[in-house]
Amino acid sequence: MAPYSIEDLYRDINKIDDYFYESTTGYLIVPKNSRLIHKYCHYGNTSGNCNGYFEMTSSGLIHLLKKLKDTHRLEDDKLSEYAILWLIYKLNVQTKRKFANLNDFYNSYIVNNKCYNDKIKGDNSLTYKEIIDKKKDLMNINNKEISKFNIPFYILFDLYNTVYDEYVNCTYKSNYAKIFVDKFKEINKDSNNIEESLYNKLLSTLSDDYNKLKKIYHNKKCTSFPSIPQIEPKKKPSENPAANSGKVSEQMLVETPKVTSSSSSISTTLIPGLSVFSVIPVFLGIAYKVNNKELKTIIFKLYFCDPLY
Question: Is 74 exposed, middle or buried (0-12, 13-18, 19+ CB in 10 A)?
Answer without folding.
Answer: buried
